[in-house]
Amino acid sequence: MPGPEKGIDDWVVALGKKADKAVCTMIADALRISELNQRFFVNRVRGLHKFKPNIVVNTRYLSTVIRSLPQSGLVALASDMGTGKTEILAMIRKDNPQLSFLNNGHRVTLLKNLSDRLQTAMYSAISCGDWAKAKALSITVDSLYKMANDLQAYDILFIDEACQYLAHLLKSKTCKEHRGAILEVLEYLVYNAKLVVLADAHLDDLTIEFFMQMRPTGEKPYIIKNEYRSGGRQVYWYEGKNSSAIVAEFHAQLMLGKKLMMVSDSKRFIKKLERALDDGSAIDDNDETPESAEDRKLRVWAIHSENSGSEENVIFIREINIAIKDIDAFLITPSLSTGVDISSYHFDAVFGVFHAVSQSATECAQQLWRYRPDVPMYVWVAPRPPFGYAETNARCIKEKILQKNEMTAFLIRIDRETGRRGAEKDWALDASCQIEAQRNWSINNLRADLRSLLEEMGNRIIPLGDGGDEATSRWMKAAGIAIDEEHYRKVANAKDIDRRTYNSRQHQDYLKPEEVLECEKFRIQDTYGMSVTPELVEQDDGGRLIKKIVALEAILAAPNNRGGMDGDEELSDSWWERVKYYARLAIERVECGVDALIELLSTLTSDERCGVMLEFEDLDPDKFAQLVTDAPQWTEWMA
């Protein structure tokens, strides 16, 4: 229990009038037995359990055994990465060019790759009004709502990486604004397509159930499962508290002349590593080994969300098996986590650094396996999520959504007999909450979950201990500072744009680096109403400063919410004493991790939480600054 109290009885007495609400909340948060079992045995939800395969094979390439598919219904292809699932569709397209075909995906890079292999038109290459004229079309799920006024039934609807597609559809920010319309269009397309094909290396019951809800009543899925496993690699496993040891190994192998690939779930990590490698500086400043600048110069290529749509990277990805021959280090983020197969041998090893911020274990594995040749892997996973643990109970997630009216895609309804809140598309909301719960569990426990998955895939785990490398930490930190300072200057010096230009760019699939800087400058100037300098860009901190200002103004604007402090001097003193006590406790708790601090704050009222954070900053500015860096969304805890 938070505070000096030892047990629930002391806690109830200490809470006074707030005890009833606090105890009721605690009971409501308690898990059912079924939910408790799922939490501790969550890996049971990975894969197919409810649905039984119609065909089971064990083959290196699925297309050598499966030459055709049923002509109608929903077909699910559950087969490991790099086993030729897409080749089956390519054969069907070649043999049946007269059939209309829609390829729907969640990442532009995946779609562009599949568009070439499946011989379809790319949605971005033709005007929206001409999409219906294309016999075969590839389009992102984000853009489906644009088809609403010109819908047609397709003979074949293909969705690759179906599990990630579904997670993106229901949870991504890029779909948020039009999610309701997207779901309506998707439901029409899935229902009216003669044949729907889902493909995924980690296909699960939830994904199949979701799409079956959109199919005609009584239809059953036709499932083809390939039991072949593309594992068998040696995975060197790092368990340090940070990634310094694995980065030191990555740099050391590059210096020995090896060609390496690095994948990560963090764009900032990839940008820092790219900057550090491009600078050509040694990790250890005390290293007296003579080495010219030319000798240290590495050919580094990085792909992330800021540059993945550039013309040079579009060409690079299209010809990736040839393009990689000219580079020493290839660094990628989730922007290149699916849809690209690097099949030609070039890299001597694959490194993976995962910070447990955005990707589940299966998505991390997808990134690692972009490079198909059998080479060693080196993997580090953060011991815990840097921003605290997320909710893993689907029921609680759903109740919170309904209570807070966070509905953008599902029309809220209230049962006229019971008064309980629900949603018009309850099956879609349920799927959304289950996906979020499963992803949260995997991210909360990513180090254990990814290791378990890699073992399931038939790989050999070789533990390398929990050591760190201080010199590498300093090396990466210096690169991060250099990136930030350069960014501040570039934003301040960017060209001025008007609001119309800014608004139009918010709906574009890709912005050039200079356009991103121009938009950032406009946002800052519009927010603060003053000229933009490097110092202001730094203080703005990516928009976090204005959130803090708004939170502070909310506190100052509602003094009566502070336990009656303005109306009663005794109550005022009591309120501040509690705030100061909990602020000191918060400083201690943050040493145990952000989640420990969140747990403490959850027991306080909203005004007490705000007061605690203000007092926290006054008492220990350095530790508060570190907290804001580790958990930039801290203002959301104040609600």
Task: Pick out its properties.
alpha/beta, single chain, globular, 7-stranded parallel beta sheet, 639 residues, 8-stranded parallel beta sheet, 17 strands
Topology:
Elements: H1 8-15, H2 19-29, H3 33-40, E1 55-57, E2 73-78, H4 85-95, E3 101-105, H5 108-118, E4 121-122, E5 136-140, E6 156-160, H6 162-171, H7 179-192, E7 195-200, H8 205-212, E8 222-226, E9 234-238, H9 244-255, E10 260-264, H10 267-279, H11 293-296, E11 300-303, H12 311-318, H13 320-323, E12 329-332, E13 349-354, H14 361-368, E14 377-381, H15 394-404, E15 412-414, E16 421-423, H16 426-444, H17 446-456, E17 460-463, H18 470-492, H19 499-505, H20 513-528, H21 534-540, H22 544-557, H23 569-589, H24 594-601, H25 606-619, H26 621-630
Helix pairs in contact: 1-2, 6-16, 9-18, 10-18, 14-17, 15-16, 16-17, 18-20, 18-21, 23-24, 23-25, 25-26
Descriptive overview:
It is a single chain. The protein is of the alpha/beta class. 46% of the residues lie in helices and 12% in strands. It contains 26 helices and 17 strands. The strands form 3 sheets. The chain has an 8-stranded parallel beta sheet with strand order 1-8-2-7-6-3-5-4, sandwiched between helices. A 7-stranded parallel beta sheet has the order 11-12-10-13-14-9-17, with helices on both faces. Strand 15 (412-414) and strand 16 form a beta hairpin. The protein is globular, with a radius of gyration of 27 Å. The two termini are 22 Å apart.
